[in-house]
Structure formats: structure tokens, C-alpha cells
Write a structure and sequence with these properties.
- The protein is mainly α.
- Helix content is 98%, strand content 0%.
- The protein has one helix and no strands.
- The radius of gyration is 45 Å and the shape is rod-shaped.
């Protein structure tokens, strides 16, 4: 009887150890799967954010280019207006001289 009880205890302990080892292995596998999934999710998120950043950079460069073009156009208009102003001032001065010229005689 005692030997049967001892054998039963050894078998129970072996079964318990096997179950613990199996559960530990499953837990490790589950954790590994969860870690791999998390890595995959983070990689997808990083790829998405990288694409968004690249798109934002392209949009910003386009705006910089557009602003540069507008600045160039504004400078050109300013030069044209300065030239027109000078021409108008010269023309106005000539007209004034013509108006006052007869009075000077």
C-alpha cells in the first residue's frame, strides 16, 4: 500500500510537472505571439507616420516654392511700379514746366 501510494504520488508529481511545463510553454508561446503582434503593430504605425511625415514635408516644400514665387512676383511688381512712378514723376514735371514756361517769358 505504501509503495502504491508512493508510486501514485510520483505519478501525480510527474503529471503536475508536465502540466506546469506545458502551461509554461504555452504561456511563453502566447507571450511571444503577443510580442510579435505588438512589434508588427508598432512597425505599421511607424510606417504610417513616416509616410505622413514625408507627405507633410512634400507639402511644405511646395508651399515654400509657392511663397518664393510670390515673393519674386512681388519684387518684380515693385520694380515695375517704381519705374512707372519715376516715369510719371518725369512726365508730371515736364507738364508743370510747360505750364509755367509761358509765364516765365
Amino acid at each position: 500500500m505504501q509503495s502504491d501510494a508512493a508510486v501514485d504520488r510520483v505519478e501525480a508529481k510527474t503529471a503536475s510537472d508536465s502540466a506546469t511545463e506545458l502551461n509554461t510553454g504555452k504561456n511563453r508561446a502566447d507571450r511571444l505571439v503577443a510580442i510579435e503582434q505588438r512589434i508588427s503593430d508598432l512597425k505599421n504605425q511607424a510606417d504610417s507616420e513616416s509616410a505622413a511625415a514625408a507627405q507633410a514635408s512634400t507639402a511644405a516644400q511646395a508651399k515654400v516654392s509657392s511663397l518664393s514665387d510670390l515673393q519674386s512676383q512681388a519684387e518684380e511688381k515693385s520694380k515695375q511700379l517704381s519705374a512707372q512712378q519715376s516715369s510719371l514723376q518725369t512726365s508730371l514735371l515736364k507738364k508743370r514746366l510747360l505750364l509755367f514756361k509761358p509765364k516765365l517769358k
